[in-house]
Structure formats: structure tokens, C-alpha cells
Amino acid sequence: MDLTNKKLILERKHKKVYESNDCIIKSFSKEHPKSDVFNEALNQARIEETGLNVPKVLAVEEMDGGWAIIMLKKNGKTLKEIMESDKENIRKYMDMFVDIQLDIHSKSSPLLNRMNLKFSRQINELKELSATIRYELLTRLDGMKKHTKVCHGDFNPSNVLIGEDGEISIIDWSHATQGNAAADAANTYLLFALEDKELADMYMDIYCKKSDTARQYVQRWLSIVAAQRLSKNVESEKELLMQYIDVVDYL
Ligand SMILES: Nc1ncnc2c1ncn2[C@@H]1O[C@H](COP(=O)(O)OP(=O)(O)OP(=O)(O)O)[C@@H](O)[C@H]1O
Ligand SMILES: [Mg+2]
């Protein structure tokens, strides 16, 4: 691995992403739990074993007082950048995006974390929802069909890289679990809806057609994934997420 000339390409509150000639270094702040960093690297290693095209993890090591994941760099642009620069062909890209997600859902990885366990833990910890609402959400979650499909958990066009030769790579596996694919689709719908409702509806339409899934089945997951996302505590998202949690249903 060659980390000379590493260049900062992205900076967030708790992490910095660098690139060098052939590597990407995702470096987390020292407050970020070590176990989360290892969990992300382990998820990515498990996904490598499914045969999906993901960047190979090379190492997890201490860096600037925190922990960093070092992985191979994939060339190309994110599908988000491509979609934004070629809006005329947005439907074609959305088709491609859904095909990639369906390919992920066709895989299994028996040792990956379980979606339902993760969601119920996150909802239980959400003290800004009343105990009544949490109970209703957990009952709803419990009533959903249990599946073991690989779910990305943060599947949006910024986590898909397209190379000049057409190579498709999927990155950012920190939220990956095994579970019900419709929950993963509801999560993707929500990620679009937080930015652009029209695009969200286009996504839902194409996902439901391609996967032969009823819209209502995906929609039933919306309140659960919205609550789960609320636990990230992003102030600007709260209002919309509360609408999707649709509390009036339970009162
Ligand atoms: N292996 C890679 N090869 C090339 N570019 C990468 C690679 N990994 C990350 N990147 C670039 O860095 C950006 C951020 O990486 P990543 O998606 O893993 O982090 P993130 O979006 O900040 O994570 P999170 O969604 O958990 O907040 C990507 O959008 C991509 O442009
Ligand atoms: Mg990302």
C-alpha cells in the first residue's frame, strides 16, 4: 500500500477521507468508537466475500489518534455526480441504480448483523418518541416478514461509483445488515425524499416494478426506517422524518 501524497477529498464532523495513488483512507476522529470502525471494515470484508464489486479492505490502523480504514481506490465518478450532470437521462440512471440494489439483495451473508435486531435497538433508544409510539413501531417491526437478504442500509447514488470503462463499485458499507429488502428500499426512498420528492417517487416506481413488490409493502416499512434514521439526530431531517413516522396512526 502506498500512502505517499495522500490528499484530503472529503471532511465531515467525525471523519476525513483521503486518497493516494491507489488507496482510499477513511480516517475517523478519536471520539468515534473503535468498534464502529472495525464493524464497518468487517462488513465490507463480508461483502467482498459475496462476490459484489466493493473496494478491497487492506488494513485498519491507528491514525492521528483515531482509527482508519484503508482500502483500494476505485476509479470513476459517483452515480450522484453523473445523475446531476446529465439530468436528461435520469430515468436510465435510476433504472441502473435499482438493478444494482436488486443485485445486492440477491446475495446472502449469514454472519452479517441482523437488521431487525439493529432496528429494534435503535428504536428502543429513541427517547424523543413516547413509549407508546416506540411500542407501536416495535410491534410493527416484529410483524414484518423475516428475511436474510444483504441490505446496504445507506443505498443512495453517492455510494455507487461508475468507472470510465463502466465498472460498477458499491462503497460505504457501515450500515449493512441482512434482512428484508423492502426495508432497504424504504430507506433509499427516504434518502431521496429528504432531498427531492420527485426523484423519490421515480425510485419507488422503478423499484416496485422491477422487484414485483407492492408499493404498500415498501411503505409499511417507512415509519420504521424513519424512526431508525431519527436516531442519527440530524436536526434538519427531523420534521420530515416525524411526518413519515406518522404518529397519529397510533394515538
Ligand atoms: N474505495 C473508494 N474508491 C474511490 N473513491 C472512494 C472510495 N471510498 C470512498 N470514496 C469517495 O469518498 C466519498 C465518501 O466515502 P464514503 O461514502 O465511504 O463515506 P461517507 O459517505 O462519508 O460515509 P457515510 O455515508 O457513512 O457518512 C465517496 O462518495 C467517494 O467519492
Ligand atoms: Mg457515502
From TrEMBL:
GO terms of molecular function: transferase activity
UniProt entry tagged with the keyword Transferase: yes
Superkingdom of this protein's organism: Bacteria
Record-annotated Aminoglycoside phosphotransferase domain positions: 22-212
Keywords per UniProt: Transferase
Gene3D superfamilies named in the record: 3.90.1200.10
Protein name, as recorded: Phosphotransferase enzyme family protein
Organism (species): Lachnoanaerobaculum saburreum F0468
